[in-house]
């Protein structure tokens, strides 16, 4: 039996019509995407899509996985959905894509031609400040150069970029619309887009990030955006709705990604108030710090990453020596594997050489107690990279005055000047039994790079296995280079309580 030509033609038309009315599935619209380090030394790939969109597919080599929802929309505040996929460390470079956009894998180090060296970039305090007291010109690339700073960072081909905190600075309604948009402020999607997500998108196909929480992301400020977009932990209702005041410390081991036996200990100092704190706050911070240390494997070389610096030197009316409660909580219990602290918070670039004040004996605060059997750090380098874009501080002096170099030895006559006593008491408290031997301060916007020898040998930019710190201007131009001293271990047990 044969089918008549007209009948065959009708069947074809009906088939074509059916195909036309079948639902068509379009790829999710991805607004922003990036890759960052998450707890467990994993790579977290994240994407932001509009409210109502489903999460996109993530292509990892020949594998395709559906991204999970990290954060749902919050009507009127966050009109977006955040998606996430976690990837374990890989010994071979992987091609990671969302749609047509490629995202970097931290295992791509060998492509940069730095054999035996890992390059880490530190940048911080990047948002555009809009407050009741000051309105930075957010529309001027020279007054708020974040995009150019990120471009300069990308030109360094780093293995990892660490943002040491403070992303969102637009906290009040703008009054001068030639400088900033009137309606973009506060902890909401539109503000996060302007202050961080949009600038990030310009380099997220080239750079892998690790994010540290700053005081601008504490529970009184932009904590919701922090937990939605950047926190290294999985998002929970406790963290998001109730705000976790201090998140648990965690360690990123560079050796998991073939970058040497170095560990970054990430500590949340966002709520460590500079002035209003109690002794119980110091004890709680110390307990949190030690719990993380004692529950984590340590690398042979450890770096503390915390937004507020333990030590600093700034003269703005009164002298600032660092975050007092954090220094009191942490300085004396840091095991001797720690060689550096990297922070932001102070809006310039600074590096300080710090050592324990051995003159301070029993009862002298953080001084090592003879015969205690506990050994903490004896010397350490404090690095501050807080000049990433927010309105800069203009330090009056880049040279320490003599009396600021060390914690004082108590004594003197009854007739000593009261003002000098107050300053001396504050300095004694702030330095927590340590001495600042040297300090260098650099003005201007920029960032700093650290080249870490993976094999412990000399390289063209290092000496004796010591990491090299270089401060850069906006476009990446080098301004000054320093070496991080690696103290000789004593092989004595570290502090444990």
User: Class of the largest domain, according to the CATH hierarchy?
Assistant: Alpha Beta
Give me the CATH architecture of the largest domain, please. 4-Layer Sandwich
The strand line-up of the biggest sheet is 5-6-2-1-11-10-9-21-22-23
Percent in strands? 25-35%
**CATH level-3 fold name of the largest domain:** Purple Acid Phosphatase, chain A, domain 2
Domain Calcineurin-like phosphoesterase: 119-347
InterPro entries: Calcineurin-like_PHP, Metallo-depent_PP-like
Organism: Anaplasma marginale (strain Florida)
GO molecular function, one term: hydrolase activity
How would you characterize this protein structure?
With 497 residues, the protein is of the alpha+beta class. It folds into two domains: 29-107, Immunoglobulin-like (Sandwich), CATH 2.60.40; 115-358 and 378-393 and 422-490, Purple Acid Phosphatase, chain A, domain 2 (4-Layer Sandwich). It is built from eight helices and 23 strands. It has helices at residues 5-21, 146-154, 189-201, 223-230, 237-241, 279-294, 324-330, 418-431; strands at 32-38, 42-50, 57-60, 63-66, 68-71, 80-87, 96-98, 101-103, 117-123, 160-163, 208-211, 250-253, 262-267, 301-306, 314-316, 318-320, 338-343, 349-356, 379-385, 434-442, 447-453, 468-472, 478-483. The strands form four sheets. A ten-stranded mixed β-sheet has the order 5-6-2-1-11-10-9-21-22-23. It has a seven-stranded mixed β-sheet with strand order 12-13-14-17-19-18-20, with helices on one face. It starts with a helix and ends in a 14-residue tail after the last strand. This is Calcineurin-like phosphoesterase domain-containing protein. It comes from Anaplasma marginale (strain Florida).
